[in-house]
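Example record for the data management plan.
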Amino acid sequence: MNPAITFYGGGGDSANYTGESLYSCVIDHFDQQKIWERYLGTKEGVSAGINVAEADYLHGNDIQILVIYNHVNDARGFDNGVDHAEQGIILAEALNIPDNVALFVDIESDYPVDSAFLEGWYEILSTSSYTPAFSIKKANSPKRTMRWEKIYKRI
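Corresponding structural encoding:
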């Protein structure tokens, strides 16, 4: 299996493009997935961003997509939260992600974070056509999500 893929109860998280070959391997080893976490925009050396063809493929297999913005490595400061939220919106709009879909900001356990950043992200996303959401990983915690109920919306 690809080390850039994580599986958890009914869902997968892939840093790579998901097509027929990868998904067939997943089905063979883990069963049908309901949710697939994918990233907005490419982050060099970390993840390949989702594209329209991949979203169509996943939806064609009845998989919901959890949309994650993972271009943050310092989650401090209101203006920084605003800047990242605006960039996330640009990336989401470029993919024609529909209104009301949750955009998760990914904050890993080793990233500095403060409430001002979260407020900036929330303020901009809540006034956009998207729903603000947070994916915050604590040390020694395999999964992390807030506003999980919003993931069931399609792009």
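Summary line stored alongside the record: The first strand starts at residue 5 and ends at 8.
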